[in-house]
Amino acid sequence: MEENVNLSTVIDAVCQEKNISREVLIDTVEQAVATAAKRVFVDREIEASFDLETGNVNLFQVLYVVD
User: Fold this and answer.
1) Contact 38, 14 (CB under 8 A)
2) Is the separation of the CB atoms in 42 and 58 below 8 Å?
């Protein structure tokens, strides 16, 4: 098995094989990664975003600035 596979390539293959919308699968991946990150960073608000250009999932911590 090739070790250096882009997540975007895997998503495309799963969408084609399972006849799932790409947007739905990307949303599901984002939610799954965010949920996993929240288990590590329990007291933080975390969001995940899939980057279509790089095929990476980026994690963000949401911070609120109070004056």
Assistant:
1) no
2) no
**Run means of pLDDT, 10 residues per run, the chain, 67 residues:** 78 95 96 95 94 92 93
Q: Are 55 and 9 in contact (CB under 8 A)?
A: yes
**Which is nearest to 59 in space by CA: 22, 30, 27?**
30
What is the chain's length?
67
In sequence order, what are the residues at sequence separation of 6 or more whose Cβ sits closer than 8 angstroms to the Cβ of residue 41?
61
On whether the pTM is more than 0.85, the answer is no
What tokens were used for 37? 């990150």
Domain around 23: 7-61
Residue 30: CATH number of its domain = 3.30.1480.10
